[in-house]
Write a structure and sequence with these properties.
The complex is a heterodimer of chains A (211) and B (91). Chain A is mainly alpha-helical and 211 residues long. Chain A is built from eight helices and no strands. Chain B has one domain. Chain B is an all-alpha fold and 91 residues long. In chain B, 53% of the residues lie in helices and 0% in strands. Classes of the chains: A mainly alpha (211), B mainly alpha (91).
Chain lengths: 211, 91
């Protein structure tokens, strides 16, 4: 269950449209390291996660990513307001405009549509958390790339906020990975997959060690 | 921490809601991986109390921020009478 709050996580207030920049920033809406992929990744992975702290981390960060998706949507929307047909052609926004006008559609900057193959839900805690750590760094790099192209502080300010969140999430996922490893065999973390081989209903513990 | 939101204007109150919600959210994530940190838990409770007060003050004075606060005694559905977050500013 989710509840909506009628506010952005961090304010977005952009006065000057810039469709060229919108075409770059939309990658964080529906691109390979974007906020939609981030949210779907964590909210999908949490079901197979065997530890409550990590289920909580995935749920709460996955929820925050939805708020980031809304901020990116707002940035792209405000950068594409009140455009004339001439401005649309001159900025190269015409290729997006012909299919979506100025509606938001999840795609990468290069036009590739959003696709679930942009993230993984492997059902193995170490695999999934290492993917999550990488995802946060890939998103941070993308925000760094965006910031090099932004010269309007009204755009840069919320992008800097989002970039910082990637670093905090990386920290929390690092702690989540440590929590998982503390519960595994310290001589060999890969002795079994605690999401699958560990039989919680049996007192003998690991399913892989039976018979 | 003691913060009186009754003296703030609309913009200040909205900024305060964003700030205290950020503090609550950040502590929420920290507590997920440190569920026995009593100091953090105490800070979280303080943030939530201030957040609840600020959101209910804003929603009764200006416009509802949550559906739970959207009803009220007036004869119109205020949820759709105020701007949505993406259209709010910068026009």
């Amino acid at each position: 269950m989710w509840n909506y709050e009628k506010r952005l996580q961090y304010p977005v207030n952009i006065k000057n449209p810039n469709p060229k920049l919108a075409q770059v920033i939309i990658s964080q809406f529906g691109g390979p390291d974007g906020e939609l992929a981030a949210s779907m990744r964590y909210l999908s992975q949490r079901y197979a996660m065997p530890y409550r702290e990590v289920m909580g981390t995935l749920t709460d960060i996955g929820t925050e990513e939805l708020a980031h998706l809304e901020m990116i949507g707002t940035i792209v929307h405000q950068l594409t307001r009140n455009l004339s047909p001439d401005e649309i052609v001159a900025s190269g926004f015409d290729k997006y405009y012909v299919d979506h006008t100025t509606g938001l559609w999840p795609q990468a900057a290069g036009g590739i549509p959003f696709n679930a193959c942009e993230f993984q839900s492997k059902g193995d805690p170490i695999t999934d958390l290492v993917e999550d750590l990488a995802a946060e760094q890939k998103a941070r790099s993308t925000y760094d790339n965006i910031l090099r192209l932004v010269h309007d502080n009204e755009v840069a300010d919320p992008i800097r906020f989002l970039r910082e969140r990637e670093i905090v999430h990386f920290q929390r996922f690092g702690e989540a990975l440590r929590l998982v490893q503390d519960k595994l065999d310290s001589k060999n973390f890969y002795a079994f997959n605690p999401a699958f081989d560990w039989d919680t209903k049996s007192s003998s513990g690991c399913r892989c060690q039976k018979s | 921490m003691n913060y009186s939101c009754s003296r703030m204007n609309k913009e200040q109150l909205f900024d305060w809601i964003n700030m205290i919600s950020f503090a609550a959210g950040e502590t929420n994530l920290y507590l997920d991986t440190h569920p026995y940190d009593e100091e953090a838990l105490k800070f979280y409770n303080e943030c939530v109390e201030m957040r609840k007060n600020a959101i209910s003050e804003y929603s009764s004075r200006y416009e509802p921020l949550t559906l739970d606060l959207a009803g009220g005694s007036e004869n119109q559905w205020k949820w759709v009478m105020s701007p949505w977050p993406w259209e709010k500013e910068g026009c």
